[in-house]
Amino acid sequence: LSFFECGDGLKKCFAENRIDFIIHTATCYGRSGDSYVDVFATNLVLPLELVELGLQYSVKAFINADTFFNIKLGLNSKERSYITTKKLFLKTALEIVKGGSLKFINMRIEQMYGPEDREEKFVMSILKSFLMKEPSLDLTRGEQKRDFVYVDDVAAAFIKAVENYDALKIFEEFGVGFGKSITIKSAVLKIKELTKSDTILKWGALPYRKNEIMDSKAAVKANKKIGWEPKVSFDDGLRLTIKSLTKKYVRDNG
């Protein structure tokens, strides 16, 4: 790995280095004190600049980390702006790359989880509650279904896109997941089982969000083009995540 400071602008980085692929995973969720400017700068302005530089400097492909979230989902306004900016970037980028040589590969990631994830993300927040021995946990009825995919499998999907870009059209989209979903309730119960938690689960204590996505799973048919499918089962992925998180809590708490 080589690291470059971008204080002098991204253009200098492209002008001084041969860049074949841009793998764009920077994201601002509109949480933890993020401003609206942060959200728009990270999710819209930055990647658009990268796309234009990619065209200018004959980059082979732009590989984009996209989200499965619905733009109508009932979130706070900053979190909705995260989804809005992601969707607007995709729409604008596709207009920019039309007729050019830069291939645009959109990786639509389902419910990703794994070690070192942010603690407010779903799997990590549940794990934290169990490992910290919270007496009870308020939940929805848990009927929503998600396609859980481990972070290492997601990384492997990006690598496969790079390795097989020659066979791809100017725009391709791949569903990063198993193509099948499980309920939130079954996921939480599995996490509870693996952590041996005594936390009382209060199903139905929380309402569903407005326009809740009741079932999301990856469209995997196109994935044959890049020869990718996930390898890590939900059970194994949870075990790896629990092991990592347990080590972190032991380290942080002496």
Provide the descriptors you would attach to this structure in a database record.
single chain, 254 residues, 4-stranded parallel β-sheet, two-stranded parallel sheet, 7 helices, globular
Describe, in plain words, how this protein is organized in 3D.
The chain is α/β, with parallel strands linked by helices and 254 residues long. It contains seven helices and ten strands. Helices cover 41% and strands 16% of the residues. 29% of the residues are buried. It starts with 9 loop residues before the first helix and ends with a helix. The radius of gyration is 20 Å and the shape is globular. The mean pLDDT is 91. Strand 1, helix 2 and strand 2 (61-67) form a beta-alpha-beta unit. The strands form four sheets. A four-stranded parallel β-sheet has the order 1-2-3-8, with helices on both faces.
Short description:
By secondary structure, the chain is α/β, with parallel strands linked by helices. It is 41% helix and 16% strand.
User: How much strand?
Assistant: 15-25%
What number is the mean pLDDT?
Answer: 91
Radius of gyration: 20 Å
Proportion in helices:
40-55%
> What order do the SSEs take from the amino end to the carboxyl end, as H and E?
HEHEHEEHEEEHEEHEH
Q: Could you tell me the number of beta strands? A: 10
Query: How are the strands ordered across the major sheet?
Result: 1-2-3-8
Number of helices: 7
Determine the oligomeric state from the structure: single chain
Largest sheet: 4 strands, parallel
**How many angstroms does the end-to-end distance come to?**
32 Å
Structural class: alpha/beta
Which term fits the overall shape? globular
Low-confidence stretches: none
